UniProtKB/TrEMBL annotation:
Protein's UniProt name: Vacuolar H+ ATPase, putative
Entry's transmembrane regions: 6-26, 38-57
Database matches in PANTHER family: V-TYPE PROTON ATPASE SUBUNIT, VACUOLAR ATP SYNTHASE SUBUNIT H
Membrane topology: Multi-pass membrane protein
UniProt GO BP: transmembrane transport
Organism per entry: Ixodes scapularis
Keyword set, alphabetical order: Hydrogen ion transport, Hydrolase, Ion transport, Membrane, Transmembrane, Transmembrane helix, Transport
Gene this protein is translated from: 8043036
Length: 79
């Protein structure tokens, strides 16, 4: 479980830093609020997309489809 907690923690901190830190560096201008909002939304959506892709690999819904001959060869090699 620790191995899976490390990437989730690192990516959470990364996207939190992007969403909370990068907007502070936007130069002053007419569209500053809009740009800050877009950066925050981008960080949330990128993190959500990454998390969904990461979690879908934990318990895949579809496994590999093997022919009977292939399964017999694999069973023979692994035992």
């Amino acid at each position: 479980m620790v191995a899976s907690a490390l990437p989730v923690s690192l990516f959470t901190l990364f996207w939190l830093g992007v969403g909370a830190g990068v907007p502070w560096f936007v130069p002053k201008g007419d569209n500053r609020g809009m740009i800050q909002t877009m950066i925050g939304i981008t960080a949330v959506l990128c993190y959500t997309f990454w998390l969904c892709c990461y979690m879908s690999q934990m318990n895949p819904l579809v496994g590999p489809l093997l022919k009977n001959e292939t399964a017999v060869v694999i069973r023979g090699e692994w035992s």
